[in-house]
Every structure is written in structure tokens, then in C-alpha cells.
Design goal:
This protein is an alpha/beta fold. The protein contains 39 helices and 26 strands.
Length: 1087
Amino acid sequence: MTDLSVAKKLSPYKPKNKVRFVTAASLFDGHDASINIMRRILQSTGSEVIHLGHNRSVQEIVNAALQEDVQGICITSYQGGHVEFFKYMIDLLKANGGANIKVFGGGGGVIVPSEIKELHEYGVTRIYAPEDGVHMGLQGMINEVVQNADFDMADEGVPSVEQALAGLQAGDKRLLARLITLLENGEAPALKEPLLKAAAALETPVLGITGTGGAGKSSLTDELVRRFRLDQGDSVKIGLISIDPSRKRTGGALLGDRIRMNAIEHPNIFMRSLATRDTGSEISVALPEVIAACKLAGFDLVIVETSGIGQGNAAIVPFVDLSLYVMTPEFGAASQLEKIDMLDFADFVAINKFDRKGAEDALRDVRKQYQRNREAFTTPTDDMPVYGTQAARFNDDGVTALYQALVPALSEKGLTLKAGKLPLVTVKQSSSQRAIVPAQRVRYLAEIADAVRGYHAHTDAQVGLARERQSLRISAGIFKGCDKPAADFDELIAWKDSQLDPKAKKLLDMWPDTVAAYSGDEYVVKIRDKEIRTKLVSKSLSGTKIRKVILPRFGDDGETLRFLMKENVPGSFPYTAGVFAFKREGEDPTRMFAGEGDAFRTNRRFKRVSEGMPAHRLSTAFDSVTLYGCDPDERPDIYGKIGNSGVSIATLDDLKVLYDGFDLLAPTTSVSMTINGPAPIILACFFNTAVDQQLAKFEKDNGRRPTEDEAQKIREWVLKSVRGTVQADILKEDQGQNTCIFSTEFALKMMGDIQEFFVHHQVQNFYSVSISGYHIAEAGANPISQLAFTLSNGFTYVESYLARGMHIDDFAPNLSFFFSNGMDPEYSVIGRVARRIWAVAMKNKYGANERSQKLKYHIQTSGRSLHAQEMDFNDIRTTLQALIAIYDNCNSLHTNAYDEAITTPTEESVRRAMAIQLIINREWGVAKNENPNQGAFVIDELTDLVEEAVLKEFEAIASRGGVLGAMETGYQRGKIQEESMYYEHKKHDGSYPIIGVNTFLNPKGMAQQEIELARSSEDEKQSQIKRLRDFQARNAGQSPAMLEKLKQTVIEDGNVFAVLVDAVKCCSLGQISSALYEVGGQYRRSM
């Protein structure tokens, strides 16, 4: 009955031709991690891969596939909208001359067998299901993909010289793409000479961009293209050739420049990625002919970006009219500059990443070297064409200065341009701005690690002193009892007493009172002359008394003190066992999770799942159209996603419908909005919804509308009273490849604006951000990385808000955390470790008050451990994960439904999921005790081990310049991907047993069970589009002025959120997102 399937060790398939793929994810997190795994294996199987990253539209993927002239497209898609996504892709390929391109896909079980059959019949080459992974293994699937796409492009015919020249002159981009392929593959030797000869007659300038690996060439290239488009009103036709190195061992290549480009989606822009293949150089052997073909295709400008180069490389120079050398400030000693060949040849030099340490010195040294190389000693060094740039910063003036210097030089080489629209800048380097985390504070995580270790060292010292003091007291008692001289003991005891920290002494002195307080049947505490009584004992059916909190029975003062300083009772520093003394009576930490179809359907679901529950904790999942800040639309790859895998929200009207019937100011009501990228916009909608609800209530109760003064008081009261959290954590968005939509810098600025708004309006019951590890775990991270990255992100917000001048106690209570609980042993203690690190750092490092020291966190059971095979078994995993969350005193809990492996959960599966935690809380006997983890040796050991591992990770991140510095180098993302890949390999080879997936397999086979699929209806989609258009039409008179005001606020560095609170009254989500992209910038994807 138990079948342990071990995937055969397969060798990579050796392709006969040069095989090229475009890889992308239609959505985010786990899907981005999985496509990254696939593209890595594709590369190691000898393929050249153009990776586009997450949240790619069909249009972007098809454009890339056609321009890159690939043999295959590999996509990971997601539940809801995937059928439309794949069909639209096939349609666009056929309509644009790409019918030969094969499409492969997967979705981890969310694409059900009937849909796979439908897509295969429509023209998709292969959709892989989870059982394919089990039977074939990762390498087996990739081998099949590569084998299917291993065909020679020349088999479709090589155009004649006349056909090639005529087609290029007619502007046929598909022909251009095919010619580049044939030239690169050496399969059109007869075309080389005629192309070079015909192109020689043209005066199209060629700009070569070269530089060290990782200097930011791609980002800088994209920013230059963006400025050409803005400055010239999209009138310049640009051909972009980007070269990346081939791997000698495998022949594969990661063509990784296109993923960085945000400005190339326009008919006048053409981009093609080349691999160096066997040249051993930074350029392709076919480069001269490829440049010639681009010139003949009618481009006004050709830009060539090489792969990363060393000091002695300058291969690009003979092929271009002007060259730009890109470097960073970290080149070592000034003498190293004498070795750089490109400083002899480059017409322009960009010192990119100019925000780094030593940038000003680097600029001076490079200018001097450039002057020496050209012996231009009569020209001032400041006039050298050396620029300080920050391509990663939106609208950087250093990049604009470089662009405005390039324009006249390119014009001299034959580029015809109109008068520019961009205002002239007078600087030659990026002007400094307020850093998110000041440079002098980048070691904050290392300081926190020192503070936590220092606290433990102090604890150990105090434990020793307490033990010695007690030993002396016991010895004195024994001596006195035996009539032995004991006079010296008093002096020794007094000496040890003086060495004990007063706080440690107080803890020990109060211990007997603490024991007495917890020993009775009730815990009595007086607050402002009011007695609050908490029942401490419950009885089992057998009559056994189960205490709410059980204290250790140590006879040793040292061990008692160790407990008090490292653990303590729930609700007492360092809050290891929980931030509250007791759980609320009659209120489970259950969250009611809903999100499907339109706001009307989700509102009905909320009402059903909260029926009969004393507290309404309303958690909302949004569809991916909303998550990416878009408005509903007819375009197939948007239309298919409307209301699938979450609710569709486009306007303030939608949010009012979503929460209709719930008193948003009731102390028992709280909301949680998993929205991420567009969080500021949705949060502004929520505040308006809560305010309008109370204004309507006033009108109904009083038979009149409130006066302006009354309305203002209602607004103030609402903001102080609403409860809930919004997931706005942009740091984990970047690390876990989630719903990032704005540039990271701008997104962090808006988060700070939200918190400043909260401080100004005394919003104290609402969390301004839910700092999430769940999405990091979903992207593939192990529990220690999840915890370390999440806490480090939390401390980054602390440093960022302190840098903005906020006081720690004004914002720290507005920060909450969100973790995933999986099956690994470390998950049993992540709450304990998080609470202790946070409390110690807040108290000892930041001097925060008691409220700020308390880390509140929400748990969601693991999404990664929901498997499409033997789906019913998922409830068993979820039950165990919920149990350890409750044992660990999480502040709220969401249990995933078993069928979320393949669909938005149905009403029946949500009911089962909620029953899991209700059964634990109300039936499971041990859960009547609220500190079951304390005193368990395994929990103690794991707590210390995991805490030390987290502190080590803090130091690793600190050594990379803090969280933001580590993100720049892709440290967190790389680690998540490595851990994800390790897990996937072990899952597929059977060495990591997963019951029903790779062992204990069902003898009846792995056929996926047919279940009800929750999908949005056609009526809901049409209704959403109609409601959006009605809203926009109704507010057409106000929205343009409001959008201008919003943009101006960004330009003037005002509080964007304060304006958003008004803007959402007349502007839709998509309108606001588009306006903010113009002034705040779009997110730039990374691998």
C-alpha cells in the first residue's frame, strides 16, 4: 500500500540546436519561485533563457517571444483566469507570426485536468500537472520541454538578399528577429556582406554601453530609453541589442537584461538579447551584421549593451559611434583606474549606484584619470564627461544629466531630434536625497544582535549571582542550625545582593506573590479601583483541574530567575510566552477569510462565515487585477482574472459594498486587507467607508445631516476607533517577488506617509503595516529565513520612521507581523523567538515603552504544504500547524482550506478550515492551558537555536548594508530561491517524504479529484466593468484635477496618503496607480 516513488536520476538532455525560451510568471510569490527554478534547470540543460519575472501580461510575453525569436515560452500561471491567459497567448502568437512558438505551462494543481485537456486542444503544447512532477522529476519535465523545442529555425527557410532588404526597409520586425537568429546561428552567410554594405550608406548612430557586471547597465539603459521617449514624445525609433555571457560548461545562458526594462513596451522600441556563445568576449560574433540589420530596419538609434567586462576589455569600441562605460564607486584604489581600458576609449563614463559610500571620491578620481588618459590638462576636471548616476532611483537627475549630454553627441553622429520636453538639469551627478535608512545607521541589525546576545549574557551572569546568593543563604541556615559560626555569611550574602541587578532582585522578590496570584481559582487584578477577575481553572470530564497558566516549581533561585528573564509568564517582559496575560474569554483568534467574485458575493460570504461568532475578524483576499493596481477591463488576460482568487475592488463604491452590514467601529470588528502594492489606495478607501458609515448612521439617528463641525468630530472619532491591519509590507514584496507595483523607494515613502498620518490623527487601533513572512515562506524560504527576513524588515521600518523624525512609541504599536506555520520543527517556536527578540531590542536598544515592546502576530497555515494530490490529507497538515500556532499564543489565526491547492476555497471547505481551530480551542483538552510550550526541553532548545540562527542572519544582512543593501544585491531573493530549489529537489526525489505526494501513494492512482471550483461568473465580471465605468463617468469632472493634485504632492514630497484619502472619492484604483507611476516610478523586476 505504501509506494515510495523515487524519481530516477536523469541526465540533462543535450539539444542539437541553439534553443531559446522566454520564461515568466503570470502572477507572483510561489509561482515566481517555481519559474525561477525551471529557468535555472533550462539553462543548465543548454538553453538560452530570457526570463521576464512575475506579473507579466500576455502582450509583454508575446512581444518578447517574437522579438527574441524563441522556440518556446514557459509560463507558470495561477488559479482563475489561466484558461483565458493561455488562449489569449496562442491567439496573439498566431496573429503576429509566432504560430511556430511552443507554449508550455504549469500551475501546481490549480489548472485542473479538464482545463489541461481544453488548453492542449487549443494549441498549448503541454501543461504539466503535479503528478507529472512526481513521475518525471524536475529534470525529466525540462528534458521534455527542451526536446520539444529543439528544432532548427532555418528549416522554415532563409530569405534571399532581396527579400531581406525589402522586408527590413518595410519595417518588418518579425523578419528582423528571424534574420538576427539566422545570423547568430551562422545560417545566413550569404546575407552578411549585402547587409553590411547596405547599412554602410546609412547614418544611423550606434551607442555602445559597456561596464562591469552588476554596475546597473540594464537599468541605466532602460532609464535612457525612458528619457528618449519622454523627451521626444515617443517619436524616436530605438533598436536595443543586449548581450549576456554563455556558460562554457552547459552552453546555456541567462539573458537577464529584458527583465530590468520598463520602458520598452512601445511599437517604436525593439529589443533583442544575444548570447556571447563561443566568442570568449563580451560581444556576439554576429554583432556587426545584427547592427546592420537594425539600421536597415529604420531605427533612428541603435543601442548595444554588452555583458559585464573586466579591466582589460574594450571589444565594443570598433562597432559603435559613441561608447558609455558604466562602473560603480567600488573599484578599489585609485591606481586600479589606470588598468581600465575603457577609460581610454569611452566617450562618456557613468559612475552608477552613486548613493554608495565613497561616490564623491570616485567621481573625482575617475575624472582625473579620464583627464590624464587624454592629456586634457587644460580642461577643468569638472568638464570631463563623467557623471554620477542612480539608475535605481526614479527620475534621477544624474541620469537626466547623462542623457542630456548624450543627445548633442548623438546628434553630431546623425541622430535627428526635436526640441526636448525635459527641463534642462545643471548638475553632473545625482543630487543627494533623504535616505530611507541613513548611511550611519546601516549596522542596525548587527547592533540588535549584540543587544539580544548582551541581554542573554547579562541574564546568565544574574542567574549565577542569584544561585550563589541562595547557596550562601542555605549554607548560613545549615551552619546556624548546627551552631557553627556563621557571622561571615551575612557579609557575603550582602556582597552578592549588591552585585545582583535591582530589576533581577525585584523579579525574585515578587516571585512568591506571582506564584500565589496564579495558584487560586481566579486571577484578580485592580485597574483604577475596578477589580478584574479571570477564571484560572477549568475541569475535564474526569474532574482534573487544568490551569490556564502553570508556573515552574524550581527550588533554585538561579533557574527561577532564568525563567523570569528569558520566558516569564504570558503578558510580561520579554513576552516569550505571549504578549497578553490571558486569552480573551469566548473569543477564538479565528479570522473569517473571504474573497471571490465581486464585492456583493464576498460580503455575503463574510456574513455567512461570521454568523454566530462573537468577534468579526474580516480578512479579505483581493483578485490579482486589484493586487496589481489595475482597473477591470475586457482584455482577456485581465478579464479572466476579475474576481478570481480574490474579490474585485476598483472603487470606493466597491469597498462600501464589501463591508456593508458590519459595524466597522464595534470593538469586536477588525479587518485585514491582504493588498500589498496598492495598500495606500485601498486603505484610503477603507477609512472613507468607515467614516461614511458613521455619517449615514448619524443622519439616520438624528433625521438630519451632521454640521461640518460634527462631521469633523465623527471623522476624528472613526480614525481613533477602527481596528484592523493592512498588508503594505513592500520589503517582503521585493524579496518574495510579490505584488510590487511602484518603485521600492516610492512605495517606502508612501508607507512612511501612512504612518505619519496615523500619528497625526492618533490612529492607534489599526496596524499601518502587517510585516509579512507568509509570502516569503510561500516563495520557498525555510522557517529561519522567513523569521529573520521578516524581523529584519520590521526593524528596517523602525529605522526608516525614526529617520523621518517620528518617535518610537508613536509608531511601534502600529506595526504587526504575519507568519506562515509549516511542518518544520522551527515553526513551533517562531512566535516565541520573534516576541523575545523584538521585546529585548525595543526595550534595550530603542528605549521603547511596554506597549511598543509587544510584538503582535497573525499566523496563516502553510500554503506550500497544500498539495493537489490526496487533497483531503491537507486538513491533517493544517490541523497540526494550527495546533502549534495556538500553543504558541498567536494573536490571530487563519487556517487554510484543504482545496486551496487548486481553487478559491468553497463554503464547505472554509467551514471545515474554521472547524479545525474551533475544535482545538473548544474540544482539545490541553488547549485549556495557555502556556503549554513553557518548560518543554525541546521547545527551550529550539527557541535558543532558532534565535541564534536569526541573529546570525541579522549579521549577514548587516554586512551587506542592511536590508536595503542586501535587497540591492538580491541576497534575500537568492536565498529564498536556493531554499525553494532544495525543497523541490528533495520533494521530487522522495528524500523529503510527503504523504500522498511522494510516498504512501494511493493505489488507485493520482487522478485529481473533481471538486467544485469557485470562479467568478460572467455577470460579476461584466457588472464590475459597468460599475467602474459608471463611477468614472460620475466623477469625470473632479478626477483630473484630483489626479494632478496627487501628482503635485509627490513632486513636492508632501504626504501622499493624506491626499489619497480624498482622491479615492472620485478616482478609481487604476487611475490613481497610473498617475503615481508617472511621478513615483514603476517597480523594476529582478531575478
